[in-house]
Amino acid sequence: MKKLLNNPNHVVEEMLEGYVKAHPDYIKQSNQNKRALVTTRQTKENKVGILIGGGSGHEPGFLGYVGEGMADGVAVGNIFASPSPDPILEVTKAIDKGAGVAYLHGNYAGDVMNFGMAAEMADLEEDIEVKIALGSDDVASAPKEEKKKRRGIAGEFFIFKSAGAAADFGYDLDDVIRMAEKANENSRSMGVGLSPCALPQTGEPSFELGENEMEIGLGHHGEPGIEKGPLATADEVAERLVTDILTDMPLTNQDEVAVLVNGLGSTPRMELYIIFRRVEQILSEKGIHIYRSYVGDYITSLEMGGCSVTLMKLDDELKKGIDHPVNCPMFVQK
Amino acid sequence: MKKLLNNPNHVVEEMLEGYVKAHPDYIKQSNQNKRALVTTRQTKENKVGILIGGGSGHEPGFLGYVGEGMADGVAVGNIFASPSPDPILEVTKAIDKGAGVAYLHGNYAGDVMNFGMAAEMADLEEDIEVKIALGSDDVASAPKEEKKKRRGIAGEFFIFKSAGAAADFGYDLDDVIRMAEKANENSRSMGVGLSPCALPQTGEPSFELGENEMEIGLGHHGEPGIEKGPLATADEVAERLVTDILTDMPLTNQDEVAVLVNGLGSTPRMELYIIFRRVEQILSEKGIHIYRSYVGDYITSLEMGGCSVTLMKLDDELKKGIDHPVNCPMFVQK
């Protein structure tokens, strides 16, 4: 795969350099650690700090969601790799306003370890209270009874959105975490992979698929899914994804949801809207009301081909969170 | 190339169906013509109507820019093909508020013919005054002395943004067109293609390139550029694109510009920011001030690989236009 790069070992540093130069009115790098980026926007005193992070290569996740209404800071890892505790701790110190900091990240072993260590260091060395909420929305990654073992994928967007709003509403740390956990508990995602991405350093494809094959339930680092099968139509793919979600999280007539049809990187918007079209039809047939829709590239995997569907079941509090305005470099909602 | 499609002949209809279902609070299809989409937002009486359009496959261009602060309606063509006069006329009738309608589109033979015919029909049949401004920002497509012969590419985004703002400011039709033409006159783009897209109906790649080749000055339907060459580094690509722009439109110390680094479809945001990084360095070395930056997929070519750089030289009026808030399904600016 051809890439616009200089030294493959410096892609993250160079991306960050470009990013802060493009959006100096939104975000800056910490002087102590260039992998620690924090908002330049004024945040209210006593607001709980929202810290997100994870590997690079998922842009707009995660740095694109630092600004007003979502996260206050981000710790940036190498491509598809967790950030180390140092930048996490740096962000924590920078964004704590005395009300503590909520860490929001996907359920991956490396992230769990590094964010956990940073949380301990924040407590012991800096006396900052930290609580953690994990994203585990990927239906394909573990059985229903073991939701806590699941990976976080595009549903993390809803967690950031909900918890970011909660912090703006003036919730305390426990309530921000409760909101994040509710968003996660009410979200289910299912994805399909059509073509791999390539890591800049190796140039190797992240997985292999036949010319007319797709992979159902693929993880967003190329983790194997549930099954490989022949490339299906958009309607069949949408039906499969929604069916798997609704089998896992039954919704009934009158339920309200937020829908996210997320592109993995190289799938045109045209195709995402064709998928959305069928998702909407299925939900509409079941009397499930779509409260708000997001269609686009929200959490990607470099230039991977494919998409995921996420449904978040809403209550009044989550609706308020979803409606809350956001102003970040890669995502703005009025 | 694998695609998430149903019937390849229905991709545009199905995309539009999904699109209006996803964003009913922004946009609706005309009852008379499904390729005619207009804003559902209230617009001021006596505001000049802004009509954009062109082929499909460039999403977010063009339908993604209908909403508040940019366009009031869009006429949608087949993939990479101009819309016919009918939907253009339908949109014209729907968005005219008595102050006339500005047509904004790229300088392509099919668009020039069809928008021109629709403008005549609007005048003769509906007594609606229409004026047209073309986008011709692609430096690669004709020599400097023949700027009017050039293609419109990503710089069209700046034309829509500027003219949309002008209409909101209460400018009359002549002044809206003046603003659009100034935005075009002050904008230059240069692109580089790394990999082709495939048309859904044929599955054929839009152009051919060797495994380590890139094409400088590629058009966004796969039109041949200036030259093919070996794949260069991101810095070299940025330098070449900016040099060609500045040779064509010399800028001096103290000049101010808006910068757009536009992805063609499958190029990760990471790479676009690495390109931006070098663009910013070059401009900064020359004392050229970046007033505002846009980095992302603004006008794409399905899943084509590569990017373009656009610079728009600013004066006070264009700055006011660039600062004007926008609220559209695929682009929001506070």
TrEMBL record, chains A, B:
Q: What is the superkingdom listed in this entry's lineage?
A: Bacteria
What keywords are assigned to this protein? Kinase, Transferase
Transmembrane parts of this sequence: none
Domain named DhaK is located at 7-331
Q: Which PROSITE patterns match?
A: DHAK
Organism the protein comes from = Oceanobacillus kimchii
How is this protein named in the record? Dihydroxyacetone kinase subunit DhaK
Q: Which Pfam families match?
A: Dak1
One Gene Ontology MF term: kinase activity
